[in-house]
Amino acid sequence: MGEVDAAFIQATEHRPKLAIVEADGIPLIDLSVLNSPDLPEPDAATIRPLIAEIGEACENWGFFQVINHGVPLERQKNLEVAARKFFALSKQEKKKVGRDEVNPLGYYDTEHTKNVRDWKEVFDVTIQNPTLVPASHEPNDKELREYINQWPENPPELREECEHYAKEMQKLAYKLLELISLSLGLPANHLNGFFKDHTSFIRLNHYPPCPVPHLALGVGRHKDGGALTILAQDDVGGLEVKRKTDGEWIQVKPTHDAYIINVVWSNDRYESVEHRAIVNSEKGRISIPFVFNPAHYTIVEPLEELTDDQNPAKYKPYNWGKFFATRKRSNFQKLDVENIQIYHFRLSEKFG
Ligand SMILES: O=C(O)CCC(=O)C(=O)O
Ligand SMILES: [Fe+2]
Known about the structure:
Bound molecules: 2-oxoglutaric acid, fe (ii) ion
Structural class: alpha+beta
CATH class: Mainly Beta
């Protein structure tokens, strides 16, 4: 292995099989009925089949892809090009916008997932600039801190491309939230209140070619922490999703002009799914998650409408900002305990 730091090496059971598992991919859902300029506002009967499809995809997979989503392709492509230019700069240039203990936005190349180092570098941007978050994870500390974007000098267009892209992602996120609400039998705007002062962000992921793709991962297995992730990937491929039915890792093949949607919340009715990214020895890869998060003061708890005697709440209420602050803190260093995850807020099985 020679030049590869042992911090990157996965335990045997987590190493990727590089042979592709041939399997039905995650569901592909066509949103054209929402976006066709020829149609008037879609009425309930027109979108009913779409809602059923979304409900099924969430229930069976927790992941799905959308096409004809209304986001102009050039928004994504332009951001990808700008991201590649940024990551091609020298380490020294990139570290000028490096993240630190005070401001976790910007460039970072030593993230660990489950205590193993990821074979990647990232650039994080918040959408509401500045974003307010709790200064510490201590429950009684009410102090807030501002996270502020750090823009590199080069490429100069990175900022504008991120901002354009963020606008499109917000539009798509609200559409998806409405569809998801409807698929849960709730009014379309039911979830919007949670996202009034949302604290969403965009991450640019770059996975450089890796000399030991059978031993390391671009990002180790994890569940996303926000409410909803909208992920764009380039045409290299590497995303794998753990299939619920048998625990097999399934590749999400890159699909032209599609976004991958990962639904994270809803009292386990729709369970967030584990996923990871594998790397390869030849090609660098870019992926761009947009993570839709509520405001820091939001108390996240199972919706009353989704709980009853038969389906009691499976999570304790928790403060979103404190959860986020704790997670950010533990992402910084290799810790002896596992990084905080949503399931740490799960009530014990006897309530579940
Ligand atoms: O690169 C990918 O396809 C997945 C990235 C991811 O899961 C993440 O950044 O949370
Ligand atoms: Fe993820």
